[in-house]
Amino acid sequence: MRAAVVTAFDKPLEIQELPVPEPGPDQVLVRIEASGLCHTDIHAARGDWPVKPAPPFTPGHEGVGIVEKVGSAVTGRTVGERVAIPWLGYACGTCSYCVSGRETLCEAQLNTGYALDGGHAEYAVAHAAYVVPVPEGITPAEAAPLTCAGVTTYKAVKVSGVRPAERAAIFGIGGLGHLAQQYAQIFGAETVAVDITEDKLRLARDLGAAHTVNAATGDPVAEIQALGGADVAIVLAASPRVLEQAHASLRRGGRLVLVSLPKDNAMRLPVFETVLGGISVIGSIVGTRADLAEVFQLHAAGRTRVGYETRKLEEINQSFEEILSSEVTARLVFEL
Amino acid sequence: MRAAVVTAFDKPLEIQELPVPEPGPDQVLVRIEASGLCHTDIHAARGDWPVKPAPPFTPGHEGVGIVEKVGSAVTGRTVGERVAIPWLGYACGTCSYCVSGRETLCEAQLNTGYALDGGHAEYAVAHAAYVVPVPEGITPAEAAPLTCAGVTTYKAVKVSGVRPAERAAIFGIGGLGHLAQQYAQIFGAETVAVDITEDKLRLARDLGAAHTVNAATGDPVAEIQALGGADVAIVLAASPRVLEQAHASLRRGGRLVLVSLPKDNAMRLPVFETVLGGISVIGSIVGTRADLAEVFQLHAAGRTRVGYETRKLEEINQSFEEILSSEVTARLVFEL
Amino acid sequence: MRAAVVTAFDKPLEIQELPVPEPGPDQVLVRIEASGLCHTDIHAARGDWPVKPAPPFTPGHEGVGIVEKVGSAVTGRTVGERVAIPWLGYACGTCSYCVSGRETLCEAQLNTGYALDGGHAEYAVAHAAYVVPVPEGITPAEAAPLTCAGVTTYKAVKVSGVRPAERAAIFGIGGLGHLAQQYAQIFGAETVAVDITEDKLRLARDLGAAHTVNAATGDPVAEIQALGGADVAIVLAASPRVLEQAHASLRRGGRLVLVSLPKDNAMRLPVFETVLGGISVIGSIVGTRADLAEVFQLHAAGRTRVGYETRKLEEINQSFEEILSSEVTARLVFEL
Amino acid sequence: MRAAVVTAFDKPLEIQELPVPEPGPDQVLVRIEASGLCHTDIHAARGDWPVKPAPPFTPGHEGVGIVEKVGSAVTGRTVGERVAIPWLGYACGTCSYCVSGRETLCEAQLNTGYALDGGHAEYAVAHAAYVVPVPEGITPAEAAPLTCAGVTTYKAVKVSGVRPAERAAIFGIGGLGHLAQQYAQIFGAETVAVDITEDKLRLARDLGAAHTVNAATGDPVAEIQALGGADVAIVLAASPRVLEQAHASLRRGGRLVLVSLPKDNAMRLPVFETVLGGISVIGSIVGTRADLAEVFQLHAAGRTRVGYETRKLEEINQSFEEILSSEVTARLVFEL
Ligand SMILES: [Zn+2]
Ligand SMILES: [Zn+2]
Ligand SMILES: [Zn+2]
Ligand SMILES: [Zn+2]
Ligand SMILES: [Zn+2]
Ligand SMILES: [Zn+2]
Ligand SMILES: [Zn+2]
Ligand SMILES: [Zn+2]
Fold first, then answer.
1. pLDDT (tens digit, 9 = 90+) per residue, D135-149?
2. Is C160 an 8 Å CB contact of chain D?
């Protein structure tokens, strides 16, 4: 099978011909149909983060495909079924996080496309209990971005506690933001979309944003405060300055949800405003299998639209460059 | 009557002889028996904060005393009753915050000892609906510190969501911290007390702390993480470094509650750890009348101990110095 | 002014000519434009409930109109403004319920059209703090049903905790049910509408129901369980049998919200299924001023449709009969 | 090994000599040290419930003992460790309930001592992921009652949402009730104990009850309402009349938690009071592995006292009679 392989953090990925892997007793073998490209893949391939993966490995945690084999101990999954292989490739299943509905915090978790070989290949093995079935009526190319971009923004909206008659400001309407906006609306909120290009603001309006702010030409803090302030701000743009604007756009009792990781890993949190305003800042990381099942269910019910562009696996290195140069804003999906 | 009056932000307070004020239709006149000194009084007297009070005024928002007169439209309060006059001197009663149980966020609020003359005087008038009855069995000198220090830490513990079988770390065991620790225990938590003097750690142990850490000689982050990390950290020490230690002492899913206002008003929030750890940072500001009633109820039931030292009103300027020099750690209470 | 007056529980209402009332210091005088007829008005007029109103009185707690006078102590309301006068005509503002966002539980509350003269008249006085402004773009005739039917069902949906990717079953698609369904959808739920006439089920489908069940010809429990069961069931039909069906249609972890009051005031609660299924049964009573403001905000934003028919005040006795005979299912609104 | 075996629903249990079972790949073999007797064991042995177990089988879901063997695929458990084998013997680990922290609602669950052979034997096999380690400092005889009676009442208190400055009424101070009372106190509540014997009320006072009511000689509804009503009522006595008293003892906003299963499986729920009082009735069924770990942690920290009496396994049939005749009120524990 062909696989995109990281051989070293300072080298481009190689498309290698590798043997199709064999699933262990608790695993399934999945023939990948589509695999979405997440910014995290680039961090993985370059070893950007403190705990690094071990080359050679195949990145990708938005792999979607058909189960071709099931391990001897697998129950619940069957050959021929379409599944998604998300970031949470394995968790212990017994720690206090796993048992209390917070499996994405499991200290023993293994992540797909990082500690485990991922979806940027023709085949992948995955722990059967951690793949999520893709319901009828969702194409592989749509399911792929939902598998990380979708569930991550869905979870961010969920933990924000946003509800009808509240206002949610979404900072950054790209591959993640256009989904965050839709989920905020599904939770009943009025949305304000903030971005720096008119294209994306137009998309936000098409998707139902009540207000849009062009942060290149206007002041999002002033404009959102003029509306009465945001109850919730969700930040998909990885810049400390945007984080601070998002905080400043909140009304009292507001909640700022952090999803993206800025380069220098720091936000200057204004303590006075946080305390007097009764503001919460909430870190949110991907979502559980149950969250992903909900994401798929909402899409199958026609509640969301997914923007994406397709690429060939052979284009993976150029695709990295496209993302880094912000040439594309929709999710890139490798079709296999 | 005698009153401690701020005449200018750069002058000491004066003890002046003023006429006893007359309550308006919705107000009560309270003969003050005890009035606690809060660090906020010093900020008020010096005009430290962006929105400043207007001299001349009398600070104090822990005034406790006996109702001597009630205004013509007052219902619910009666002459002879003991009441406390807290920081929230007035709120609009009709905005979304007031109606939804978050009156301390009311944009129209007036604060006692700041916008309204406060408790550091022999008499004070107060909006009848915003004083809170002090139940039998609580002395004025105990009730005073509960009126701000008590309810502020009680609320901080409440919004932390801490519960039995969780671990709460309290950073700073002074006038606020020794109460925060007790409330965390009443909510069922195991507590870790962090301070830099053995005296205070001894007090914390007396009050039931399961663990204590001397941050002058040890590393609170390492010691708390060795216990498994804190589910909740409450910071009463107004230093950015302590805020960062408190954040770092959390386990995944942990919650950091901000109460104190550091000098330069900024905390460096580590975004990566906040997102990956699913951590929340929660600003908490005093508490509602209902919270204060609960604080009194718990004290009347014998569930809390209040540390305080008494002073004369004439000693108010020296008392400010005592606090600023950290000579005393218990709450100072003026007896009148 | 003309007013519909209950003179005795066993007599029809009389249309009397009464002097226009004078607002007290904390009250407003409202010139009524539209006043919705709620089933509770009939219970009030007939003295059906244990705590009875005292004739003569004017029922009506969906009165909408223009402020014509404000009392001397009123702040916040101005002459010329459109307001609604809901069931919660007055609450104490200081008890634990009022202060914690649950004013509809206040033991000292006074109810409009019951303890206080209500909206079925050309003018009404109301406590200024408890009227709710009607935003631009909502007609009086639409605002009226929202003032009780709207906020009651909105609150029922709110306390149900329903959220996206959950299924809500609405039992009874009449004046309340068609609103409950819309609110459940605004909170993100997939809805199942249950009724016994095809007309109402057609309305439910128009409003976006994913499924409908005709309980006259089919078995709602079997049909809803075939879908996977309901996460939430909201019962607007005042029959013990429907309550029991609603309970039986829940999936594990489901929540049954009680709103309507059946004749004999009893539901047979199956304890085994409640315990094993981890089911909650939640009583919900109208909503707060904040809830009503949200209801208006959602309608002004075009998120809800209100079904109603207009009547003349003189037709009030016939209108009672229409409701009792189930001839109409939409809300009746008196235009004044 | 010796095991207590149900051979038919209408016969006494037999003590049989059976081969020691062999653990499957995901199982452990536990040498039982103590096994608590729960009323559910009697229902299991007599086939009282709609879904019946299949004789021959061994009841018991409070088995505590030492791991003697681990299956080939087991991780996390080691030989020599002390564990408890609770009612939730197996759950699927992947359904929406399992993944969202509500594994006790899993539709695929298998229950110990019911579908799976249980703890009333010298050895038991158990699914490794569903046993819970017993920490140092807890004896097997104490751990046993905590494994069902403890976690069941702990969960009931947890779902009640009770908190400091609230009042919890516990109806029935027996093997479950004395634990429910302690947990309510650990969550910060003031407790009222209701029972019909002075012995148990004395125990309740020893354990810290603020009030006790003898329901044989007094009226619990009147006495609790005289205190201000209960915020929470937890019913461990399986009688419809007690359920109705518990409901009537609530104040507005109160929550009634159902745990016990009355004979005729019905409670008459007063709808009017439930709706007007904003009351919730909450079914609660045992607890998760995480809940049980918390129960053990609290006991190891010295926060709870467990009342029990020991019996020999051979006395199981007499022990059933003792429980049915209410001769004993403490938990009976077989020592092996
Ligand atoms: Zn990703
Ligand atoms: Zn885990
Ligand atoms: Zn203060
Ligand atoms: Zn307000
Ligand atoms: Zn009504
Ligand atoms: Zn009230
Ligand atoms: Zn049991
Ligand atoms: Zn399951």
1. 999 999 999 999 999
2. no
